[in-house]
């Protein structure tokens, strides 16, 4: 299996100046697990639940008073769309992350989480 | 003349055996549409005839030789009384066991005519009646466990195919028993010591006609009890009853398939924790047990006395 | 062929029809080609014929009684996949402004998920009867994919409510999205019924 076969093509891109509370609202309403923060042209950071919890809530900071760019992780860990799942898993293991992005040139096509890997494996067993 | 009356009475009994007890054999198969009524009737005819011709002699010997040393007159009175009782109770929608009625009335007229009657054989027969539902219940549970083990890990489609064949087999066994045990009991008074094939053929024909004409009733009655069970338990109860009656046939004892079935259904139901037979049904059967043979005995005695007095 | 085999074969055929219907629905929506949806309706009618034929087989005595009601329910569930695909197509045909489709990766994904679900079901249908463990595994996958479709639907509706649109277009778009997602729901129901059938006895 290659990256583009199992990736999730839904990318939610948000403005860097929205508040963390708005990010949370987006994640809840759209039932997603992370959002991309557009920092500059073709320069993105990512906010996952982990960032929201560790960089904001646990520190007692009011999510209304914190901007998205302040808690975004960067740079994005990206792989080419032809990358094999094995390689992706090795990258995730090394970087201790649960979310990598798939790119074609400098364009981001989608993201891959453990959920996508698991789903890909399970579906391929049935087809 | 007297022989003709006996024959007619026998054929009437055979007819009601067909209309009442065919459901024991083919009720499930017809209900499940494994067989059409027409095919079931043909199978019934073939296997009833086979049963009575091949293995009917044992029951015949017990009933009209060991139990009562019959004469033409005794047979005639007993058969006529039996036929009247069976037909009347059928019309009232309260069918009684053919075996019990015939045994009761034969014994009654035997005693009235003062011929030699064997209380020992009578005890054996009554013991068989008492034991058969329990043996059937025991066999049914064993069969159920066996089938459960056999079908484990098989897919539902294969299991279904297998169960269908088993149900047909079981139906055929019971049809065979209907000949070898039930019809044999009815034919006994006129068949003992003779080549009875032609009489048996007429009897089997009458049974099949009875089954076909009253086929609406076939899928009813007891089979309702079976169909509320799942097919595995239903089959076990059915085949357990078939085996039980067959065993008693070999022993020459006239026993009722219906009661064996009740035994089988209750036992499997009990084992699975389902109340498959209603208390009302059991009460009805218990009443039947006391009522039918005694009534037959008394009526037959009176009729014999009247005949002798005439 | 035995009556039971005919019934199973009919259901398998209905399942491959539902796969075709979902593929056509995807093509029609992505290419905005409403003509293709006529074909979805035709497939739905073909499915109806198969359903009727199957019900007749069952009435005539295919399967033992304890299985019949569940098999019939299975047939109706599969038929419902086709009906729902057709319903989605019919709503789509009524939408005049297809602007909501622009860049909607989410709608594309639901279309894809429906195809995936129908493919899993139709490809493994016969196998599921022989191998209940595989069915169990497939049920987990189907539930997972259905949940994804459900999440996507909520996300799409969340976006839609921010858009200005003509009243009727709004209604038809809403119903289209609902029906599209309902397909995955019905596939899940079908799997549940299938499990009841396979594990009965």
Fold and architecture overview:
Chain A has a single domain (3-126), classed as CBS-domain, CATH 3.10.580.10. The mean pLDDT of chain A is 92. The radius of gyration of chain A is 15 Å and the shape is globular. Chain A has helices spanning 3-6, 20-29, 49-55, 68-71, 85-95, 114-126; strands spanning 13-14, 34-40, 43-48, 78-80, 99-104, 107-113. In chain A, β5 (99-104) and β6 (107-113) form a beta hairpin. Chain A is an alpha/beta fold. By secondary structure, chain B is an all-alpha fold. Chain B has one domain (2-305). In chain B, 83% of the residues lie in helices and 0% in strands. Chain B has helices at residues 2-31, 37-67, 72-91, 98-113, 119-151, 156-191, 197-213, 222-227, 231-250, 257-272, 279-309. Chain C is built from six helices and no strands. Chain C is 85% helix and 0% strand. Chain C is mostly helical and 201 residues long. Chain C has one domain (3-199): Phosphate transport system protein phou homolog 2, domain 2 (Methane Monooxygenase Hydroxylase, Chain G, domain 1), CATH 1.20.58.220. Chain C has helices spanning 3-30, 36-59, 65-94, 105-130, 132-160, 167-199. Chains in contact: A-C, B-C.
Which structural class fits the helix and strand makeup of chain C? mainly alpha
Q: Mind summarizing the main beta sheet of chain A?
A: 3 strands, mixed
| Gyration radius of chain C, in Å | 18 Å
Rough shape of chain C?
elongated
CATH topology of chain A: CBS-domain
Number of helices of chain A: 6
Separation of termini of chain C? 23 Å
| Poorly predicted tracts of residues of chain A | none
Summarize the amount of helix of chain A as a percent range: 25-40%
Largest interface: B-C, 17 and 19 residues
Order of helices and strands of chain C: HHHHHH
Number of domains of chain C: 1
Count the strands of chain C? Answer: 0
Structural class, from helix and strand content of chain A? alpha/beta
Indicate the proportion of strand residues of chain A. 15-25%
Summed over residues and divided by their number, the pLDDT of chain A gives a mean of: 92
List the quaternary state of the chains.
heterotrimer
Supply the CATH class of chain C. Answer: Mainly Alpha
